[in-house]
Amino acid sequence: MNLHTIIQGPTTFAEKVIDHYKDIQNVCWVTNDFSSLKKNELIEKSNIKLLTYSGVNPGYGNINYQIVSSSTGIKHAMKEGADYILKIRSDLIFKNPSEVLKVVNTNDRIQCYFFVSFLDDPSFQLNTEHKVNLSKFLRKSGLGPKVKNTNKGSYVCDYLNFGPAKEMDSYWSVPLDSIIV
User: What is the arithmetic mean of pLDDT over 46-63?
Assistant: First the structure.
């Protein structure tokens, strides 16, 4: 399995994240170009490939930042020959990375099970096409019945995604939200 890891989001916790991934290959961090230059330099000196983007309207709840950073990293990983992609937010690290690798090696897909209740929440203003794509992904992957509606969150499922590269690309290839913030 040619696994690539995409870290998506701000560089606020760069030192901890860099240390966490120091022995991992095929790691890419995608952030906006107004992130701290000092933190970007730390990333560039590490084993992590840094990609930046600019000129993006944040959209409702910064959804456009999540879409652009995730899709940019996924497209990069696919160019590098990724079969599978693990995408995680930059404010999260695994308590025990070796345990995550065990899960990844025994499952061909992992989605955020814990915050998908927005699918049933009419008050959440998620991009309609993204909501439709997420619903299709959940049905196609067989995860739909495993998702519990906790009614505790209304947030796009961007915490952690893992799956075949083409499916990850499809999941994050949605139009940007047009709400000007």
Answer: 90
Mean pLDDT of the chain: 77
How far is the C-alpha of 163 from the C-alpha of 106, rounded, in Å? 12
Residue 156: other Cβ atoms inside 10 A: 23
Helix (H, G, I), strand (E, B) or coil at 163: strand
Task: Please report how the helices 165-172 and 128-141 are oriented relative to each other, as an axis angle in degrees rounded to 10.
Answer: 150
The token pair that represents 117 in the structure block: 């209740």
pLDDT at 136: 61
Closest CA to 56 of 69, 40, 70, 37: 69
Alpha helices in the chain (DSSP H): 14-20, 37-44, 63-79, 97-106, 128-141, 165-172
- Under DSSP, the state recorded for 143 is -
Rounded Cα distance, 162 and 39, in Å:
26
